[in-house]
Prior knowledge:
The protein has three helices and three strands; from the N terminus they run E-H-E-H-E-H. By secondary structure, it is α/β, with parallel strands linked by helices. A three-stranded parallel β-sheet has the order 2-1-3, sandwiched between helices.
Amino acid sequence: xxxxxxxxxxxxxxxxxxxxxxxxxxxxxxxxxxxxxxxxxxxxxxxxxxxxxxxxxxxxxxxxxxxxxxxx
Length: 72
C-alpha cells in the first residue's frame, strides 16, 4: 500500500484529492494538512511511513516549494 499525505490550504481541493486517492487501488490517504507546520508534525510523528506527498505549491500564506527544502 502506498501511503499519501495531502498538503493543501483549500479544504475542498484537499477533500477532492483525498477522494481521488481513495479510488486508486494500492493507494491510501494517511492524512491531510492545511499548513506546512501541520504537515511537518504529521510526517515526523506518524507511525505510518509516508510514501507520497501531494503538495499545493501556491498556498495563501506559504510557499509549498519551500517545504521541499525542509531538512530532516
